Amino acid sequence: MKWKTGQLALVALFAVVALIAGLITWAGIALGKSGEAAQSPLNRPTPASSSYSLFPPAQNASTEDFSAKSQALSGIFDGAQGNFTASVMDVSTGETVFSRNGDAAGVPASSLKTLTVAAALQSFPSSHRFATTTLLGADGTLYLRGGGDVLLGAGENSSRISGRAGLASLAEQTAKILKDDAAAPSSVRIVLDDSLFTGDALLPAWDKSLMTSGNISAVQPLAMWGARSSEAEKAGRVSDPAMTAAQVFEKALSSALSGSKTSVSGEVSRGTTAADARELTKVEGATVSEVVEFMGEESDNYVAEALGRLIALQQGKPASFEGATAAILEKTAALGVRTDGIQMVDASGLSADNRVSPSQLTAVLAAASRSTNRALRDMPYAFPIAGLSGTLDTRLTDSSVAGVVRAKTGTLAGVTTLTGTLVDGTGRQLVFSLFASDVTSLSDARATLDRAVAALI
After folding, report:
1. Residue 4 backbone phi and psi in degrees, to 5
2. What are φ and ψ of residue 125, in 5° steps?
3. How far is residue 425's CA from residue 61's CA, in Å, rounded to a whole number?
4. pLDDT of residue 426
5. Dihedral sign, CA of 55, 61, 63, 67?
6. How far is the C-alpha of 437 from the C-alpha of 180, rounded, in Å?
7. Predicted pLDDT of residue 66
8. Cβ distance 144 to 191 under 8 Å?
9. Which first-to-last residue range defines the signal peptide (predicted)?
10. Integer Cα distance of 363 and 370 in angstroms
11. Residue 317 falls within a domain, yes or no?
12. Which domain CATH number covers 89?
């Protein structure tokens, strides 16, 4: 993403403010708790309760303070075309301070990814990484086994999130082992093992236009750049991501084995790794926290669906659409959030058959912010920054909100949503979820949601 001069200035300003605030907080904690290990600002307990919060609660905030904001929100929604529902919660008290039919289940679009993010951060250590492995069978078959990394790169391992693990690096490592093995076969044939995920690779309920428009592709346990044809941010998605990656690996391995006693024979085929196959080597992708951040900021549907299946596997469920949604709902309930009325058919929010209420989404965000699990408290960092990054790059650009709000966007035909967190003028952390449906102009509806968010500051 290219950053504008004004955006860079805002980033610099916020960084300075955050640094000063962090130093002040650190100093206060270090001086006030002699003999105890200093806590980071993210780990400090809130004065209001024994739980924890990403932001300190306002000392002078009250329900009465919100009356003017409530009137402003009602006026904004009343004057707009479409059906608007909303929920706003004060994190430090857990109180809903504004609701406009907030308990009514609606189509969340990509705001549904809020549940997927929370489930992923509960399911795996934030430093966990998914691997892509090569194994050698006794009959000379070389297996390329997908372990859930769908952000592979074609080249060498890199520092980027998308492309952290490179197929060329995997090929070079594999070739070196074969070259150094006196008992290595004279030729190997490559078999792609993408059996980790089960069931339908494409949800039957998805509109076919979602595939032709590049929103999604067949969900498989290994893919390059989120099933895209290149590392370009908006490159089209390939129809068979795992086989495309396997063919790239085959070419890289053939090149890496050039001049050695072992060569690659035949074309890549699909199969399941033999029980007697021994592991040769592997490459590991970005950490779960990085993958979640990538998915949230770019609203990447493919990564969301892969994460859903990996969450299901971690809970002993089938790595299918049904297993993924059941696992995510279990993790949602584990946060203490009621799940009655939620209907999930995918992990990305692509289907118009998904249903969840704004109040359930704000409850997830509030529970995450108060969690003793640091990864969950950091959940807002998986969302774009208003006016600066991801799907909010060109939204909420006014100086009063840019850099202050983090939120997950969502868009389907006739539907737009916005779910996230901010700190208002009194220093109170608020979480919000705003739905607009039955709209004739998505741009107008987005503008309405943006005005509503600005009114919360």
Report:
1. -85, 160
2. -60, 145
3. 10
4. 87
5. negative
6. 62
7. 85
8. yes
9. none
10. 11
11. no
12. 3.40.710.10
Tokens 């980027």 correspond to 160
Asked if residue 284 and residue 138 are part of one domain, the reply reads yes
Query: Do 1 and 101 have their domain in common?
Result: no
Residue 310 inside a domain? The answer is no
Give the pLDDT confidence score for residue 320 in this predicted structure. Answer: 98
Residue stretches of the chain with pLDDT short of 70: 1-64
The pLDDT of residue 39: 31
Burial 358-383 (b: 16+ CB within 10 A, else e): bbbbbbbbbbbbbbeeebbbbbbebb
**Domain that includes residue 81, residue range:** 45-108+356-457
Which residue in this structure is represented by tokens 């992708």? 285
Alpha-carbon distances, residue 135 vs 91, 141, 424 (angstroms):
49, 8, 54
